[in-house]
Design brief:
With 361 residues, the chain is mainly alpha-helical. The protein has 14 helices and five strands. It has a three-stranded antiparallel sheet. Helix 4 packs parallel to helix 7 and helix 5 runs parallel beside helix 8. The N terminus is likely disordered.
Length: 361
């Protein structure tokens, strides 16, 4: 009778927040992209339809992933990591360039960003590696052993997408931090991270140019997008102009539906509306923390911690870029910015975390 009384339990708070973010994201995406869709493709629903299709696939995939024991993915962790490496190499040689960045691969009519797959692959791969070396994580040699496999993919991804490389490094640091009993060794890891960023900034002149644009956007032609985003934020005030009433999206803010969508949110919904969306992200991050602390083993805790690091770092980077708190790095706002690959793999990642929260009660 006790077995019959037991039932499977998922973190429904997390699930509801994810679905809310997805629904709000589609509404805001349509509001932001309708004008561009009409002008470029004679279809105001162009971006919504593409995002909606990817979202539908992602939601189905999320529930499928949630129903599969996360331990069953362990044998595929190495394969996923190697695939991410190969796809990143392919981008360098046969990738498609868009707005000056080579980040996409095309398979017939379908194009996708391998870096989005790489985030999920790295979370699972590192969670497995750290779990295997859990008893030796107090040794510097073990930390080096765990970090070395991450560096090639960070380098390959960072060659065309520095912001994603930073996210992957951040995920690795959080996973090692969770499993490590000693914290002093993270000082040299931070030094390595800073050194990595300095090298990557110095390798390409356009990255140094971004620093100059960040400091004085009004002096550079490429600072136009940043300035228009700030105008949008400033004009929104406390409660905004109203949903659909943005002025900056009418051709003034380039590609408003992508990285800069948060500025349109501020313009249309104001500080209050933008604050509520940030609150949803904070609740989601909190649920990741709860799931990690209640996980039945270290592997599950690391998967949830990796997802927490991913969302937390990406949201912070996006909002910091939009508000010009840091140089422009070209990073999307999870679940809300336009990007089919992004929302698809984000939802698959959420399914993996839901699987970790799948406890018997």
């Amino acid at each position: 009778m006790e077995r019959l009384a037991k039932k499977r339990y998922y973190d429904y708070t997390m699930l509801i927040v994810v679905l809310l973010l997805v629904i709000i994201g589609l509404i805001l995406l349509y509001s932001t992209s309708a004008y561009n869709g009409q002008v470029k493709f004679r279809d105001s629903f162009y971006y919504l339809k593409k995002q909606g299709f990817a979202t539908a696939l992602g939601i189905v995939g999320m529930f499928v992933m949630a129903g599969i024991d996360y331990h069953k993915w362990v044998p595929f962790a190495n394969l996923g990591y190697i695939t991410a490496l190969l796809l990143s190499v392919a981008v360098m040689f046969v990738g498609d360039e868009y707005n000056g960045s080579k980040r996409w691969l095309s398979l017939g009519p379908v194009s996708f960003q391998p870096s989005e797959f790489a985030k999920v692959a790295v979370i699972l791969f590192l969670a497995c590696v750290v779990t295997k070396n859990a008893k030796k994580m107090d040794k510097v040699s073990t930390l080096i052993k765990v970090m070395i496999p991450v560096l090639p993919i960070v380098g390959l991804v960072g060659a065309s997408n520095l912001s994603t490389a930073i996210i992957i490094l951040g995920i690795a640091a959080v996973l090692i931090f969770v499993a490590s009993p000693k914290y002093a060794q993270f000082l040299w890891m931070a030094a390595v991270g800073v050194g990595f960023m300095v090298v990557f900034l110095a390798l390409e002149s356009y990255r140094l140019e971004r620093l100059a644009i960040w400091r004085n956007p009004e002096k550079y032609e490429k600072g136009y997008q940043t300035l228009q985003g700030l105008y949008a934020i400033g004009s929104g005030g406390l409660f905004g102009r109203g949903l659909g009433e943005s002025v900056q999206k009418l051709g003034f803010l380039p590609e408003a539906q992508n990285d800069m969508i948060f500025s349109i949110i501020c313009e249309e919904l104001g500080l209050v509306g933008a604050g509520l969306i940030v609150l949803l992200f904070l609740i989601l991050i909190w649920r990741f923390f709860v799931i990690a602390t209640k996980a039945k083993d270290l592997l599950g805790a690391l998967i949830a911690s990796g997802a927490m690091a991913h969302i937390m770092i990406q949201v912070i980077l996006n909002i910091a870029v939009v508000t010009n708190s840091i140089p422009n790095t070209g990073i999307t706002l999870p679940f809300i910015s336009y990007g089919g690959t992004s929302v698809l793999f984000l939802l698959l990642e959420m399914g993996l975390v839901l699987s970790v929260s799948n406890l018997v009660k």
